[in-house]
Amino acid sequence: MDKSSLLVPIIRMISEYQSPGKKALQKLVDLIEQKGLDLRFNYSIHYYGPYSSELDYAVHSLEMQGLIDIRAEGMSHKIYLTGLEEESITLLPEDEKIIHEVLKIFASMPAHELELITTTDFVARELCRCGKPCTDQELVEGVKVIKGEKFSSEKIFEAISLLRGNGYRW
User: Fold this and answer.
1) Is residue 85 within 8 Å of 67, Cβ to Cβ?
2) In the beta sheet, which residues pair with residue 71?
3) Is 153 exposed, middle or buried, given 0-12, 13-18 or 19+ CB atoms closer than 10 A?
4) Tens of pLDDT along 14-73?
5) Alpha carbon distance 18, 35 (integer Å)
6) How would you write the chain as a 3-class SS string?
């Protein structure tokens, strides 16, 4: 099974909380991967936080197959299942559990908040690589290097606490 086919049940599950835009989908899939479901999408830092061109390609592949519609709505590109997707694509119970855990916490958040959370997680993984201890203040400074003053130190500290409190480790 290829990566894009696994996105269908993930999009279905996210759609129980919101009609995800492309930005929110990027962030939620990143959080799902960091929680332990290896979909093998590579991420780099981008204007709106972690971004995977591979994930973007997979989403457009699903659109070309007629499994999803991407509609411009305001400033967003919302993703909708078309009803043509196969119900036979099932996830392993442990994978479904990871997805449900992540979505229960993050799926109702706006893309702007998800941007902060995933950028904080990205910075933490980069700074704390190889078991190198890093302080919360270093994480805040790292996020500010990337985002400037877009997010307050207080909001970044809250994102660190939220991630740690929900089992994200660096």
Assistant:
1) yes
2) 78
3) middle
4) 999 999 999 999 999 999 999 999 999 999 999 999 999 999 999 999 999 999 999 999
5) 20
6) CCHHHHHHHHHHHHCCCCCCEHHHHHHHHHHHHHHCCCCCCCCEEECCEEECHHHHHHHHHHHHCCCEEEEEECCEEEEEECCCCCCCCCCCHHHHHHHHHHHHHHCCCCHHHHHHHHHHHHHHHHHCHHHCCCCHHHHHHHHHHHHCCCCCHHHHHHHHHHHHHCCCCC
